[in-house]
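Hello again, I could really use a second opinion on something today. For a while now I've been wondering how a particular protein folds. Please have a think about how the structure follows from the sequence. Here's the protein in full, and shout if anything looks odd to you:

***
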Amino acid sequence: MSAASDDCDVLVVGGGHNGLVCAAYLAGAGLRVRVLERRRVVGGAAVTEEFHPGFRNSLASYTVSLLNPKVIADLRLVQHGLRVVERPYSNFLPLPDGRAFRLGGPDGAAELARWSPRDAARLPDYYAMLDRVVVVLRELMHATPPNVSDRFVLADWLSSLTVARQLKSLDMRGRRDLLDLFSKSAGELLDDWFECEPLKAALGWDSIVGNFASPYTPGSAYVLLHHVFGEVNGKSGVWGHAIGGMGAISDAIATECRARGVVIDTDAEVAQVLVECGRAVGVALADGRTLRAGVIASNLNPKLLYTRLVAPEHLDDDTTARIRRYRCGSGTFRMNVALSELPDFRAAPGTTLQPHHQSGILIGDSLSYFERAYFDAKSREHNPGWSRASVVELVISSTLDDSLAPTGQHVASLFCQHVNPIIEDADGGWDAHRDTVAKLMIDTVDARAPNFARSVLGYDALTPLDLERRLGLVGGDIFHGALGPDQLFSARPVLGQGHYRGALGGLYLCGSGSHPGGGVTGLPGRNAAREILRDLRRGPKP
């Protein structure tokens, strides 16, 4: 334990949901914990804010599935008001020819059979294949990865045995499926399973969410897999909406933090991690204050932590070089839109509330459409860096939660792919093109629902640069680092720091840049708290 002069036992840098989760578990073990958040509200990307007079919505993250049931139970989130409602079915795809494809729901099998009897017969086997793998990997999400270091450490050796035992529980077929999901592209996997293009688009969307890549990029199958780990109300693979928006999750965690004695400071930007004799001992705030603690837990993107908060002289050359190469960058353009009425889709006419308005509405009808969008944005051949025919998932949150908009009006989340994370300065940078791309996204939806553009009352558009400036998502990366095979498990963020312990003594990583990665799960925070308590020889351990 640290000296009596310390301001607290643990300083958590960044009040995103993982930082709050970490703080709550540590405080539950009797430690004095203080959370430092740069913004005026806690929650990071999981916050609900007013973006147009009378209209509120989730700022960045916008739908619920991955939040871990253990975190929900341990931190009493339901008792603190968290309520998640399910979509009536998974996805609605309004197609260019006027037809509509629906995935999931009670009539999902019959709907798919009208498109492809073969695929309708195969879809249960596909889900069963994913479930066999997910059951094993879901357990590993709770585990601390074995650390790969230059010296023998018994705990790491035992962790390796634990991983081996988990993987051994898969039969040979399951191991082959696991290899496919970690090494192949989502497109290759889905093309092998199915023939119906809208079905492959609905399933393959998960492989490009926040991932600036083609669905045919090797490794993209894992990004798809990452999105099926979750559950809503005990139902695996289901997505839902948190009443009050994603901020309701962060608010519930913060309530439990305060109940356990955590001090939460907002408008408290950390400017530097203080280092003495190779050990992190405190932080310097942008307002001139300094705070000390025996443990510093960072909820920040590792690239942000090591390039802006830790002085270069405190890092070895190899760590510095590898963090510089740590891949961050999303093809995401995020919008919140205030609407005077519901979209009137050509494929499903009417502005009266219907089940498809409550699902994930996907503009993009095939994997080849997704691929063209990626290469269009990457090539910059036609503009400074966005696809001319973008992929848009439209979620009309107010159809499930009438607290977000005035009566009779609605709010919509537009999660748009693909845009290039960087617009060159010579082209004016992202600030010069925000509204141009926002109009393109609105027009993309309007092409399927011709009343959409005229129903827009106002919007808030976030480019990748806005996501970085406002929320610390470097390159707009919603995962705090690409989910490639080279940046997973023991290698997240780099080998030697996969067990939540950072490059300096006393420095820990508790954010999505550590295992198991991005999404609103709470698991990086929970797992990091366990390792901190283990090092401090404190309990109980989560």
